[in-house]
Amino acid sequence: MIIIVAGFSTLHLSSCITSFHPLFTSETLVTDDQLAGTWKTPKGEIIIQKFNNSQDREIFTGNNIPLEDSILYSKFYIVNFKSGGYNYSWSGSIARIDGQEFISLSADECLNQQKQSAYPANEKGYEYLNTFTFARLVWKNKSELEVQFLNGSYIKQTVLDNRVRIKHEYDKLYNSFIITDETAEMTKFLEKYKNDERLYDKANSITLIRKS
Q1: Residue 186, pLDDT above cutoff 50
Q2: Whole-angstrom Cα distance, residue 194 to residue 197?
Q3: Separation CA 100–CA 84 (nearest Å)
Q4: Phi/psi of residue 152, nearest 5 degrees
Q5: Of the four, 39, 57, 123, 194, which is 20 to 30 A from 136 by CA?
Q6: For 120, phi and psi rounded to 5 degrees?
Q7: Cβ atoms of 78 and 92 closer than 8 Å
Q8: Rounded to an integer, what distance in angstroms lies between the CA atom of residue 87 and that of residue 109?
């Protein structure tokens, strides 16, 4: 049995889309110098660091990482958020699609105050499979950023109604919906529908105000 870990429930983003694949490729992956910093949100502070400025860069220590991979990692961001005694960490990667920025977020870890993982393998041998969720980045100014998460409920219903074709897995019993389509196909989908405001979940959008 595979358990999908999204890791965004702490921000009450329950209706976000879930995908097996990120939006970026080596050709579309970009960085945005405005993104790094400490941000205020209604749920608390979020700290965003460039990968090379974060503790995650230690994975390169003593490891023979291919140059191509190290270049990709250098364009990633690490997002940290504390809530309820847990420290949540996500990795983020930005793809620029037709002039708009979309970030793919995946859960890295969730640690309690003893720095123990909240996602250990249990005695039944269940595995945790990391997935991605997507959001559009809309800059109001250099100090205010709106993170508009894609509306998972709307996209799911659109796909199940056969109005758009996206490869997916759907479990009717548990009402779980996961996008399995490749990055290239999801990019084509956003190229076509990126300006349709129904694609974005206003209730789950988060406004970040720069603190530092």
Answers
A1: yes
A2: 8
A3: 34
A4: -60, -40
A5: 57
A6: -75, 155
A7: yes
A8: 8
* pLDDT tens track for 69-125: 777 888 999 999 988 888 888 999 999 999 999 999 998 888 888 887 776 554 455
User: What is the bridge-based pairing of β-strands 86-97 and 29-30?
Assistant: antiparallel
Q: Are 106 and 128 in contact (CB under 8 A)?
A: no
Contact 18, 132 (CB under 8 A): yes
User: How many Cα atoms within 13 Å fall on the side-chain side of residue 186?
Assistant: 30
Residue 152 and residue 177 in contact, taking contact as beta carbons nearer than 8 Å = yes
Phi/psi at 70 (5° precision): -65, -35
Bridge partner residues of 79 (DSSP): 48, 90
d(CA 74, CA 56): 11
Supply the pTM of this predicted model: 0.87
The whole-angstrom separation of Cα 137 and Cα 66 is: 30
Q: What is the dihedral of CA 93, 96, 102, 103, to 10 degrees?
A: 10
